[in-house]
Write a structure and sequence with these properties.
mainly beta; Immunoglobulin-like; three-stranded antiparallel beta sheet; rod-shaped; four-stranded antiparallel beta sheet; 1 helix
Length: 153
């Protein structure tokens, strides 16, 4: 019987009825992967609150802006709000200045003429200094103004 099975197997192989061993095959191709990174910036602000003012001496205050721009993105910070004048009781006004240095010699610009900065991808702090000059004779009360801060990139 074993001879019969061997003959049968030999006949089947001769006729091509027995499958040869299968070998795996592979093909490959390449694909392109791309992305466009656009520059972006976000800003957050904190209030600038002056101490009590009586007109006899200059008062100053400071706050910090937080700006986060894409790594390598250039930007400028400015405030188009003009005049820089707080309004108080019965429409009385109190003038003030905004500056980018502690000595209050470099005004925060009204347009994009300010210093160019470069983003790092991390939050960068920008100090803003305020000053109310002495000698303003205004009514007692609370004074305020909403100021727009712009990051141009």
């Amino acid at each position: 019987m074993a001879k019969c099975n061997l003959r049968l197997l030999a006949c089947a192989a001769a006729l091509g009825l027995v499958a040869p061993a299968v070998q795996a095959a592979q093909v490959s191709a390449t694909m392109s992967v791309s992305a466009t990174v656009v520059g972006a910036c976000v800003i957050s602000t904190a209030p600038l609150t002056f101490p009590a003012y009586n007109g006899s001496a200059e008062v100053t205050a400071a706050t910090t802006l937080s700006v986060t721009c894409s790594n390598g993105q250039t930007y400028r910070v400015f405030s188009p709000t003009t005049p820089r004048r707080m309004v108080g009781p019965a429409g009385a006004v109190l003038d003030y200045g905004l500056f980018t240095n502690v000595g209050r010699t470099t005004a925060l610009p009204f347009d994009t003429t300010g210093a160019q900065r470069t983003g790092t991808g991390f939050t960068q702090s920008i100090d803003i200094f305020g000053s109310i000059a002495s000698g303003q004779t205004v009514a007692a009360g609370s004074y305020s103004q909403i100021v727009t801060i712009v990051v141009d990139f």
